[in-house]
Amino acid sequence: MDEIAAVRGIWSELGLPGIIDVHTHFMPKNVMDKVWQYFDSQGPLIGREWPITYRADEQQRLATLRDFGVRRFTSLVYPHKPDMAAWLNQWAREFGRNTPDCLATATFYPEEQAGRYVAQAIDEGTQIFKVHIQVGAYDPNDPLLDEVWGLIEDAAVPVVIHCGSGPAPGEYTGPAPVEKLLARHPRLVLIVAHMGMPEYSEFLGLAEKYDSVRLDTTMAFTPFAEAMTPFPVADRGRLYAMGERILFGSDFPNIPYGYADALRHTMDLPGIDDTWRRNVLHDNAARLFGLDGA
């Protein structure tokens, strides 16, 4: 079946107006090229063959998402060194102005000026932040981020946070640093990327403890992820019970399989119902971002 028809069939059969994908990447071309080169080289944080399925120019990638019926998406950017985040935010701000179906996105890094550019991003209408603890290799509790987390908590802007130890552990990955962060900032709206793989159980526990914590499905449940980090069968009941705080994410375009495959493996989980499916594909994100008319 044509992939566009397959994707559109999944959400239309649920009576949805489309999909809200909270985990997609649009970056400056030179940055995206370097990301793809890293995947191509099977870098140390990858460690396995990882072909980029949707390697295309920016306009083609946008057209693909829109053809799939993705109503809202993100331009998740993230720095791996100082003096990079403000520049990425400037790029993402311009991209968002030219791409109205993209949720306004920003990022940050532990550095002296972080509070200033995060405050500016919030003032300019940022709808979502992205932080990558694994790639950035920093402690989310770094004192240089104290002001940042306070600003974001007060503004209630969601943060997609890659903090699990997959695909390779880092010094600051895992649930412990995030639990420490939430103890200090319990109202932070954190969206734990990749369901927190491989520490699925522990991050589900944080979501059960903190009402503001959510998880995104990015890459979880697919054969590619299940081969290395299978979701524990014993936690399926907890997963279903958390249905109002799980959001669909794809990692488009940097996925080694088709978009329809990612949808199918999430939507075909045993024991879920259509309310769970609608919540995850669209309704939870629509409520979180105030997009009920999306």
From TrEMBL:
Pfam (any one): Amidohydro_2
Gene3D superfamilies according to UniProt: Metal-dependent hydrolases
InterPro entries the UniProt entry points to: ACMSD, Amidohydro-rel, Metal_Hydrolase
CDD domains given in the database record: metallo-dependent_hydrolases
SUPFAM superfamilies, alphabetized: Metallo-dependent hydrolases
Every Amidohydrolase-related domain range: 20-291
Keyword entries, A-Z: Lyase
PANTHER family: 2-AMINO-3-CARBOXYLMUCONATE-6-SEMIALDEHYDE DECARBOXYLASE, ISO-OROTATE DECARBOXYLASE (EUROFUNG)
Protein name: Amidohydrolase
